[in-house]
Design a protein that fits this description.
The complex is a heterotrimer of chains A (about 400), B (about 550) and C (about 190). In chain A, the strands form 3 sheets. Chain A has a 7-stranded mixed beta sheet, sandwiched between helices. Chain A has a 6-stranded mixed beta sheet with strand order 9-11-10-13-14-15, with helices on both faces. With about 400 residues, chain A is of the alpha/beta class. In chain A, about 40% of the residues lie in helices and about 20% in strands. Chain A is built from 12 helices and 15 strands. With about 550 residues, chain B is of the alpha/beta class. In chain B, a hairpin with a 2-residue loop joins strand 11 and strand 12. Chain C has about 190 residues and is of the alpha/beta class. Chain C is about 35% helix and about 20% strand. Chain C has a 7-stranded mixed beta sheet with strand order 2-3-1-4-5-6-7, with helices on both faces. Chain C is globular, with a radius of gyration of 15 Å. The chains are: A alpha/beta (about 400), B alpha/beta (about 550), C alpha/beta (about 190). Chains in contact: A-B, A-C.
């Protein structure tokens, strides 16, 4: 494991961290359509393919729908394939997201979380990716640029073991356009971690098959059953691969990240880059003697029910902070956390907070406010707005 | 029935995909109608007296294969350079494209291809049959019959009383309408094919009909209708011969004629004599027996040309008598209702000269009575068979004055009958498959485009020359542009639409043509619907 | 954790300045964060970029910078157009691109004596090194030289290395401009600080 010492440490924006992750994964086909704040991913990759730094085919297309269609096809043809998008672009892909899952194309996509229009807004919000919850894609949320690079590599490994498409998610600007120190691993090490991609049903000209075949009611359900089983398998594979990744690269990820939770009575649950600010606020609260910690959800699909139960059971109170909203109900991580906790032993009351929609800054004081609000409240509520002017 | 599978979820492939091919299911059994790819007859071909394969040759033209175009064209018309100038083009009347925008300029395309091939044609047959055929008369009918009989490998000898072949076309039709060079080239082609000519020899005078019958396996009488008809009215002998005028002019003479002149006639010759007179500097009037609207379609073109050039007409009038007075001809004419002179309509008119230009009649004097009756010949209209074995009749000698294309067809059909006779077979006239109507054309595939006009001289230019050709036709560029407008009705030009549209890949592409795979074709009919030119029929599988 | 806010106009290179500065600190073993004010501003509009510098392993936040420790002003006209000193912590540095001496500037703009001021004629230096045009000189590298000099970090050496890595065109000219600015920076530290 001496290879790791050949790592290059540099400063990268989140979107470039994606591009370097893609390069290290030796992606063979890329197709993407530009959209803020994703554009610099495609630009960097187009640049890399043009110069030969990355030996891949970049397919230019006229829409996101075509981009995802192209990479589903190339993935089924047996080429490691990648696309990236955000917001409206992801929404336009919706139909083909189901298709990728149904066809079992282990495409990896990066979605840069951006609010949906109208009103037009280019800033961060998680509703775009969470709205694709039921398409059957794995979804992995990230907190830093290093994690973005690491997760991009991991995503290919996991996707290709279970033949499920995987979405790597990062926040608009807060990660995508922010420069941070990033370690770029030596190619040989990544090659050792991530073997070449093979699909058992890859297109074979000597044995032609129609992929995406018709299935009557007497078969459709079996295929759906298999997809669910693959998701269940993906949870185990995620654990295995993050273990191996930690061994080889020295960075440990898990389905959920636990911060200052050992003796915590109160837990703040969230996902994405807001966790950084939450940790900072929690550290301040700890200095005041508050017994509070953070649980960051990294893996959203498959949902790590067991880990969430393990972490949250027996706590006094839990607040879920959602930078997203399922209209007519509540924040989506809140909804999912609550559902996971139903039937768990020693289930704490869970409070749902909605904050930071459309990129509104979530500052340490906001986190502290939410914590204090939760502590004060008796009865849990599904939706508690933070900072909205009413 | 497709096989029944019963896999468990764990036995399924990862990606939903076919485990077999669709070939497992021979869906042809589902069919109640089947597509049949069958060429049909285009309205133009159906209307053409000699059934020129028009969509076929135009398709080759579009594809740039001029030799193939010429071959297809010559299959039913040996002289496209002649018809391309003289034909009245009945083919263009029913052209389906005419119902969409404007009909295809078939005649000009024919001329273009004919002229392209003029010096290339005339190959001897590959095999000689050893049979010998004599053709009496080297006019258009005889030439046409000679072309096809020689092609079949028979020895063909044409007897003509004139020093060269061509008959009326050579000795009467003016240079500005049919250049001699064109006719000479056609005659040259026949020569190259190995047709023999016995010229300056009149059957009945220089050689007997019986002798011909003896010497040859078959004889075709194609002596034409070359005796100008002369009406019978007082003073008719004072009038000049329009036929002679045409002949003199064709030979190069330029007689002086001026002032008001009249032309009496009943067809093409009258209009052409008037046009010659116009060019000679006279002011011609045609006295014509029917109303303007009754001018037959075959004479419409020449009439229009004459009218454009300033020829004037007295319609529905017949001459009653002629006189010479003070050097002028006084012509008495009267109204003609189609059957009789209308009473009290006589009127006198004064002309410098009056020319007789009636159509010709046949002289059958050299023939035995057995095949004559009342001045006409006893012969089958199509095959030309007469009561005398081995003797056939073709052309105007049996039909009377006719458009060139009819004469050519007569030569061709009689040649086919003679060929069958020589081979001991029964002659069966050609059958035309079903004609494709406009409703079978999918016009969505054809952008509207106006007919490409041919190059021609203006009337003012025309009347100043007796030799300069009046219609100049198409350049290759113009011809290609016009050819591309053709719907190719009923003719599969391998456009590939059926192949592209077949939802089940059951139309295969074999040797550049579509072929239905009936084992899998479900008979949905999309190919038939999308065939732009009505080639694919949906035929009921079986009747109940 | 030190927080630095850079003020400029769209097109002047404020964002790149934040990245260069962060990279230079990174070379000194610091953990850094650099990001633009996430907006849709275009050329000429007042814009801001941010840099956070801290020890590796320390906790950062992911928010805009509201109370910077120091500010860098690429365009002197911004001093009156925008409240660049908003939230600036007492004792912080104000680094300004201007031909004026710090004393003159303090007097003219009314900078409270709780701030340290450094000035440099980055525009003249940029033009001298043919960076940008007279209408829009690229002053971002020059003013970083002044920051290095006034603040004492990052070192000029690391700054020049970062410039050479980050600047897409004319890296040597940019480095030379930074060096010249470093050497010509004028500093005013009031006694109150």
């Amino acid at each position: 494991m001496k290879l790791i010492e050949k790592s290059q440490y540099t400063v990268l924006k989140g979107n470039y961290a994606v591009a370097y992750g893609v390069k290290l994964a030796r992606v063979e086909v890329i197709s993407a359509y530009p959209i803020t704040p994703q554009t610099t991913i495609s630009e960097k990759l187009a640049d890399m393919t043009a110069t030969g730094e990355l030996k891949a085919r970049f397919i230019t297309v006229e829409s996101e729908h075509s981009a995802i269609s192209a990479v589903i096809a190339s993935s089924l043809a047996g080429a490691r394939s990648f696309t990236a998008t955000a917001s409206q672009g992801l929404a336009l892909m919706h139909e083909m997201l189901h298709w990728a899952t149904g066809a079992r194309a282990p495409v990896v996509m990066v979605n840069v979380n951006r609010a949906l229009a109208p009103s037009w807004n280019i800033w961060t919000e998680q509703t775009d990716s969470l709205a694709q919850r039921d398409t059957g894609w794995l979804q992995i949320y990230n907190e830093s640029n290093q994690e973005v690079l690491d997760t991009t590599i991991l995503a290919f490994k996991i996707a290709e073991r279970v033949y499920l498409p995987t979405m790597v998610v990062l926040d608009a600007f807060i990660l995508s356009h922010t420069s941070e120190p990033v370690e770029i691993y030596p190619q040989e090490l990544v090659d050792e971690f991530l073997p070449p991609y093979e699909h058992p049903n890859a297109i074979n000209f000597d044995d032609p098959r129609a992929i995406g075949a018709f299935a009557r009611p007497d078969y459709y359900m079996e295929f759906r059953y298999n997809i669910q089983k693959a998701h269940e398998e993906a949870l185990r594979v995620f654990k295995e691969e993050t273990e191996l990744f930690a061994e080889m690269f020295g960075r440990k990820y898990d389905t959920v990240e636990e911060f200052m939770l050992d003796d915590a009575d109160y837990v703040l649950v969230l996902a994405g880059s807001t966790a950084t600010t939450a940790k900072y606020a929690v550290a301040q609260l700890r200095e005041r003697g508050e017994k509070v910690g953070v649980m960051r959800i990294k893996l959203f699909r498959p949902f790590p029910v067991e880990d969430v139960r393990r972490v949250l059971s027996g706590r006094k109170k839990v607040a879920v902070i959602d930078r997203n909203l399922s209209f007519g109900h509540s924040g989506i991580f809140y909804m999912e956390t609550k559902a996971a906790m139903y039937g768990a032993k020693d289930r704490p009351p869970i409070f749902g907070y909605v904050a930071g929609l459309g990129g509104r800054d979530i500052r340490p004081q906001d986190i502290i406010d939410i914590y204090e609000d939760m502590k004060r409240r008796e009865e849990p509520e599904n939706i508690i707005w933070k900072g909205v002017r009413v | 029935m497709a096989k029944k599978y019963d896999f468990k979820a764990s036995e399924l492939p990862i990606s939903p995909m076919t485990l077999t091919t669709t070939l497992e299911n021979p869906t042809g059994g589902w069919r109640s109608f089947k597509p049949v790819i069958k060429n049909k007859t285009a309205p133009c071909t159906a209307t053409c007296p000699t059934k020129v394969l028009i969509p076929h040759f135009i398709d080759s033209l579009v594809k740039g294969d001029l030799d193939m175009a010429a071959n297809l064209l010559h299959r039913n018309n040996p002289f496209p350079s002649i018809t391309g100038r003289l034909c009245h083009a009945p083919c263009e009347l029913p052209c389906n494209r005419g119902k969409y925008d404007e009909p295809i300029s078939i005649k000009q395309l024919e001329r273009f291809v004919g002229d392209y091939y003029l010096d290339r044609k005339g190959k001897p047959p590959r095999r000689e049959t050893g049979k010998r055929v004599a053709i009496v008369g080297g006019g258009l009918a005889g030439m046409s019959a000679a072309y096809y009989l020689r092609s079949k490998g028979h020895e063909v000898v044409i007897y003509d009383r004139n020093p060269n072949l061509g008959g009326y076309l050579r000795y009467y039709v003016p240079e500005y309408r049919l250049p001699l060079a064109v006719l000479d080239a056609e005659v040259g082609a026949l020569e190259r094919m190995g047709v023999k000519f016995v010229l300056n020899t009149e059957v009945g005078r220089d050689i007997g009909f019986e002798e011909l019958k003896e010497k040859y396996d078959a004889v075709i009488l194609a002596h034409g209708s070359s005796i100008p008809y002369t009406p019978d009215f007082p003073g008719v002998d004072l009038l000049k011969s329009g036929w002679d005028l045409m002949k003199e002019v064709r030979e190069g003479a330029r007689p002086k004629v001026s002032g008001k002149v009249a032309v009496l006639g009943n067809g093409y010759t009258a209009f052409e004599v008037a046009r010659v007179l116009r060019r000679l500097g006279a002011d011609p009037f045609v006295v014509y027996p029917t109303a303007k609207i009754r001018i037959p379609f075959s004479d419409r073109e020449i009439f229009t040309l004459a009218e454009e050039e300033g020829v004037k007409f007295f319609f529905a009038k017949v001459p009653l008598k002629a006189d010479r007075r003070d050097g002028k001809v006084i012509l008495t004419v009267a109204e003609w209702d189609g059957k009789a002179v209308v009473p009290a309509t006589e009127r006198e008119m004064e002309f410098e000269e009056v020319f007789l230009a009636y159509e010709g009649t046949a002289d059958h004097g050299f023939l035995p009575d057995t095949i004559r009756s009342n001045g006409t010949l006893k012969a089958d209209r199509r095959s030309g068979e007469t009561p005398l074995e081995g003797v056939f009749v073709a052309g105007e000698s049996v039909s009377g004055p006719s458009p060139v294309v009819n004469v050519i067809y007569s030569g061709r059909s009689v040649a086919a009958a003679v060929d069958a006779y020589l081979r001991g077979r029964t002659y069966t006239p050609e059958n035309m498959p079903e004609v494709v109507g406009y409703e079978r054309i999918v016009t969505d595939y054809f952008p509207k485009a106006p007919r490409v006009p041919e190059m021609r001289l203006s009337p003012a230019e025309r009347i100043h020359s007796l030799t300069r050709e009046e219609v100049l036709g198409y350049t290759q560029e113009l011809a290609m542009k016009e050819a591309e407008r053709c719907f190719n009705c009923g003719f599969c030009n391998a456009c590939g639409n059926c192949y592209v549209f077949c939802p089940d890949y059951t139309i295969k592409w074999v040797h550049g043509r579509p072929k239905v795979d009936y084992e899998y074709c479900k008979g949905c009919g999309v190919c038939s619907e999308e065939c732009p030119r009505g080639v694919i029929d949906m035929v009921k599988e079986r009747e109940f | 954790m030190i927080e630095i806010r850079i003020h400029g106009r769209g097109g002047q290179g404020g964002v790149v300045a934040s990245e260069i500065l962060a990279k230079a600190f990174f070379k000194e073993g610091k953990y850094i964060q650099a990001f633009p004010h996430f907006g849709v501003e275009r050329r000429g509009a007042p814009v801001a970029a941010f840099v956070r510098v801290g020890e590796p392993g320390s906790l950062f936040v992911r928010t805009n910078i509201y109370e910077p420790d120091h500010i860098i002003v690429l365009d002197p006209t911004l001093l009156t157009a925008v409240n660049v000193m908003e939230g600036l912590k007492p004792g912080g540095w104000i680094i300004v691109n201007t031909p004026q001496d710090p004393e003159e500037l303090v007097k003219e703009v009314g900078i409270p004596p709780t701030y340290k001021v450094a000035t440099v004629d980055a525009t003249a230096i940029a033009l001298k090194h043919r960076l940008g045009s007279k209408m829009s000189p690229i002053v971002n590298t020059a003013i970083l030289g002044a920051f290095s000099r006034a603040f004492g970090a990052p070192s000029l050496e690391n700054l020049l290395a970062a410039i050479r890595e980050e600047v897409p065109v004319k890296p040597e000219e940019n480095a030379a401009a930074a060096k010249e600015a470093y050497e010509s920076t004028k500093i005013l530290i009031p006694q109150e600080v």
